[in-house]
Amino acid sequence: MMSPRRFLPLTSVSLIALILMTVSSAWADVRTITATGEYRMGDNDTRSDAKRLALMDAKRLALEQAGTYLESVSEVKNLQVTRDEIRTYAAGIVEVKEQATSSKMEGETTVVRVGVTVQIDTAVVARQIDALRKNEHAQEELRHVREEADRLRQEVETKTKELAALKSKTGAAPLLKEREQAFAKLDAHDLVVQAWRVPVGQRVEFGEGGAPPPQDRASMKAMLQRALVLDPVNARAHLTLGYLLQEEGNFKGAAREFRETLRLNPDLARAHAGLGRALLADGRRDDAAREFRMFLKTVKPTPENQRLIEKVQHKLQELEGPPNRPPLPRRPRDFER
Question: How far apart are CA 189 and CA 183, in angstroms?
């Protein structure tokens, strides 16, 4: 057995970041960021575990570097976004691509390294950030997903430390299972973030009546379905899938996803608004009005929610108006008019 000194915590010297930045000579407005994560294996780690741990940290480092770089881009500066906004948007506008994986022995310890790259086209990224700033729902979703991903990374690190502290493999099985579950949830959150990546030119109010193009909807839907295979209780994946089904005209399917969202997380008030729109489009006016009232009762009056609050209030007034009014249109997109 290796000496306990070889079991090094994930947050200390067991992870080394080598950040290199180069500017492409072919495209002056494209910046390539390369980050490398390193993990030193312990007795209870497999090579697959070690690779995932190194990759997790490499992604974190790449996104941190991307955020730092974006703060210096003049096009982004002109948008007057805060550092916290940039950190939130970074995962939703840049794609981290895995590169080479290598391993070597250092004494009795196997060291695994994983490299990743991020390419940033400054003009494109500035337009994407501008689109996200106008998409209040995307802002809220990316912020919450980022916070949950941070929590899950911390959970993985904690389990890794506990595994490293074990003197033998006895007792490792429960910790390994818990770490694997946290990994699966983290992978699911990455897919939800990817699904929210805003294509340039997309209508900016998806989730409140807007819609990405059909080809983007198909890609987003596939990502969300993969996320739910990894983590069936991911409420935000169910919520976003509900919006996609609604845009396809599958109102019953959308209602099912919104109800599942609320079952898993009753605090996601926007699911009440989405469910109300789906029910209204399906001709169920009274049920829709009930969901709109629930939304107004439970939603937090944040700046991100204010516009949707006003629209729900207006729609509810229409539903509760004089009984001889003409029937409302069925399409959920009319909710925004």
Answer: 10
Q: Are 255 and 284 in contact (CB under 8 A)?
A: no
Sheet harboring 109-121: ordered strands across? 20-23, 30-40, 109-121, 97-106
SS3 250: coil
pLDDT value, residue 266 = 95
Residue 233 has φ and ψ, to the nearest 5°, of: -100, 25
Structure tokens belonging to residue 290 = 């009930």
Residue 98 token pair? 């895995």
Q: H or E segment at 277?
A: helix 270-281
What digits encode the pLDDT tens for the residues 156-186? 999 999 998 887 777 899 999 999 999 999 9
Residue written as token pair 């193009």: 213
Report the C-alpha gap between 227 and 235 in whole angstroms. 11
Between the CA atoms of 102, 152, 67 and 8, what dihedral angle is there, to the nearest 10 degrees?
Answer: -50
Task: Report which secondary-structure segment, H or E, holds 23.
Answer: strand 20-23
Tokens describing residue 256: 């099912």
Q: Which of 195, 229, 258 lies at the terminal end of a domain, its last residue? A: 195
Helix residue ranges per DSSP H, 16-135:
47-72, 74-77, 83-93, 122-134
Does residue 242 contact residue 254 with C-beta atoms inside 8 Å? Answer: yes
The tokens for 138 are: 């995307």
Number of domains forming the structure of the chain: 2
**How many residues would you count in the chain?**
337
Same domain assignment for residues 170 and 308: no
Are residues 177 and 280 both part of a single domain?
A: no
Which helix or strand (DSSP H or E) is residue 243 part of?
helix 235-247
Statement to judge: residues 230 and 134 lie in one domain:
no
Q: Which residue in 84, 81, 118, 125 sits closest to 98, CA to CA?
A: 118
Q: Which residues of the chain have pLDDT under 50?
A: 1-28, 199-209, 330-337
